[in-house]
Fold this protein.
Amino acid sequence: MTANTLPGQPHIAYQANALCMENVKLADVAAQFGTPVFAYSKAAMLSALAAYQRGFAGRKVQICYAMKANSNLAVLQVFAKAGCGFDIVSGGELARVLAAGGAPEKIIFSGVGKTRAEMKQALELGIACFNVESEAELEVLNEVALSLGQKARVSLRVNPNVDPKTHPYISTGLKGNKFGIAHDEVIDTYKKAASYPGLRVVGIDCHIGSQITDSAPYLDAADRMLDLVDAIEAAGIALHHLDFGGGLGIDYAGDTPPSADALWAQLFAKLDARGYGDRQIMIEPGRSLVGNAGVCLTEVLYLKPGEDKNFCIVDAAMNDLPRPTLYQAYHSIVPVAIDGTTPPVTCDVVGPICESGDWLGRDRTLAVKAGDHLAVLSAGAYSMSMASNYNSRNRPAELLVEGDTHHLIRERDRTEEQWANERLL
Ligand code: LLP
């Protein structure tokens, strides 16, 4: 059998014209579980993690998987078993980590709008650190911690004002963003944090954006953050850890992000040069651990030739895969089986939802007919975790592929569940 790997997808390949994830034929998955359905390769996740681990050999690093990228319990379990902690942004995510067997003491809590109830929940569980984003949040966290007789461990998220050169919706480290403490106010805010009896300052963090495909913004942000560390420690406030956030991009369409180990070799060279090489490091990668581990399988319902455009209408839609319509994101779309007889057409791949924004791919050349299956690639991150029930559609099932077996890790929604919490008058 000839294996023909797809760019950026080492664990997905055609074997004798049948698309396989590891050793599982994706056509069989579609037939057994119906479509749309997500499948994730465990080996792909672990090899993405291994690239980080190689870059961290001999260093003190805690990888905290940013679970908003894909929060399925089994996915969390894979990372927890591999030693990861978690970067969370809500009480719901915290509860998921516990349900998946993750360790509270390896959790960091990010986000600009933590509620008192979420702070209490996290303090009672003894999480590692709160990444605090404003003075107002410091005040509230101090109050909540004191009411529990605790000292909350805090890190301040600094806004380094660096352009990550990514989509504006996922760029977070510029002055105009709602995130982090402005560069000029950082020292005063640290002094304030250190003076609160209910807080213990332990770190500093920054996260400049997502789908970053160049090392330069990371290196600039690191320099700016280390300048701040120099100044904060000169002011007498010791920092136990430095958290560089997440953001490393993946190959969606010929993108060429640095590999995690190459990026970290550069970052450690900088840290070593500035005397911080043996400091405890934290990172919060999301997309780069799961994005290219997943596909969404969908069935072609109809081919609809048009005057200006042809449409390939499939059974997955913007509620299952929101990235194209939200960020004009490109996901490769490939046939699950190559039959060699169907003529190719150029078409927009669209879903059944009643909006023109419901598209998954534009101007794609595909040789498919009704009843065939397509795979939307790079769908392991920010796809199912952002899926909704819009148009009262059931969210897809999810599978984890492991070698030549697969596990159902989430059943497809059932329609009655959609209104289980609603009440007739
Ligand atoms: N840490 C913080 C504080 C974050 O806000 C994020 C992502 C991460 C870590 C993980 O970033 P990653 O390594 O995944 O790039 N829905 C968008 C992406 C939103 C990212 C939000 N924050 C998309 O589909 O492109």
In short: The CA atoms of residues 171 and 209 lie 4 Å apart. The mean pLDDT is 95.
